[in-house]
Amino acid sequence: MEQQRYYHRHHPKKPREAVEVKGDKAVLALPVEELGLSENVLALLKNGRVATVYDLCARTEKDMYKIQTFGKKHLLEVKAKMKEKGVDFLPPLPPKNPPAEKASESVNAEAKQAAKPQKEAARKDSKQPQPQPPKRDFLSDRGQKPEKPTAPKAKRDEPKPTLPLKPEEWKRVNKNGKWGFHDGLKTVIQPSFDEVFMFHEGFASVEVNDKFGYIGEDGEWVIEPTYDCAMSFSEGLASVQIGEKCGYIDKQNVLVIPCVYDACTQFENGRAKVKQDGSWGTIDKEGKTVWNK
Question: b or e along 3-20 (b: 16 or more beta carbons within 10 Å of the residue's beta carbon)?
Fold first, then answer.
């Protein structure tokens, strides 16, 4: 069965462990459509596999930013609607390991406590007469070499990468609140954008001053930031948003499918999903749509 992809494809790589979510069970069971969110935010939540209020309450605010192009303004809208229902996100997770200083202090305290009975026993033994060691027969030891103590083997550091990563694998880097890219060896695109998303087909969607555009692998603009939202390219087309409506552009920034839809997905095998007036349909690259009955 063909998997549907909504605006964003990035999901947490590791599922969250089971957590206790507090709140009215009837409210937690509500679908996110019942919160009164905008169509754009609903499309983002669907792409992040958030179907119910429980799915929201089982995440932290930081988890929400793992959904591609889900930003602060979207988070504030969701938090306001959740507050009306009397629910909220999970608090931030505590660090898994205690601070190194506290851990070392506890270890030292336990070691001192364990050493006390040993010291007492040593004091008692010192008062008793100690047996004399047997005389060593030096003649029997002739020709035998003493064993040398073996030094522990030093751990080898993991080898560092010697080749740069492919553009599709570049890592995002943040400096002073701005984002750029690192190829595993060096920073290839300096952090100068409000948000960046992974490269696809040679282009990366980036955000500057609440507007989205595309840069090439050299970090230069290939499509100026004029859109309210812009998805990654797939099969030569990318979904963009103007106002509250979305459509598709090609790599020459030609609007090949007009922005008349409430929500769009990326193209896969020549087809994509679009939503209009509450109904979903399947669209091809020529703009022909077959609506679901």
Answer: eebbbbbeeeeeeeeeee
Looking at residue 60, the DSSP 8-state letter turns out to be B
CA–CA dist 57, 23 (Å, integer)? 9
The pLDDT value given to residue 188: 95
C-beta neighbour count of 223 within 10 angstroms: 21
Query: What number of residues does the chain have?
Result: 293
User: What is the rounded CA–CA span in Å between residue 284 and residue 291?
Assistant: 12
Per the structure block, which two tokens stand in for 57? 């309450």
Which class is domain 1-91? Answer: mainly alpha
Query: Between β-strands 289-291 and 229-230, what pairing exists: parallel, antiparallel or unpaired?
Result: unpaired
40 forms beta bridges with none
Helix (H, G, I), strand (E, B) or coil at 199: coil
Residue keyed to tokens 């754009």: 40
Least confident interval from 90-104, 200-214, 269-283:
90-104
Q: What is the pLDDT of residues 51-95, one digit of tens each?
A: 898 888 888 888 888 887 788 888 889 989 898 888 898 888 776
Q: Indicate the domain borders of the chain.
A: 1-91, 167-291
Residue 47 · residue 7 · CB < 8 Å: yes
**Residue range 2-61, pLDDT digits in tens:** 444 444 444 444 445 556 777 788 888 888 888 888 888 888 888 888 889 888 888 888
DSSP tag of 46: H
b/e burial code for range 113-124 (CB count within 10 A of at least 16 → b): eeeeeeeeeeee
CATH architecture of 167-291: 7 Propeller (2.130)
State residue 222 phi and psi, 5-degree precision: -110, -25
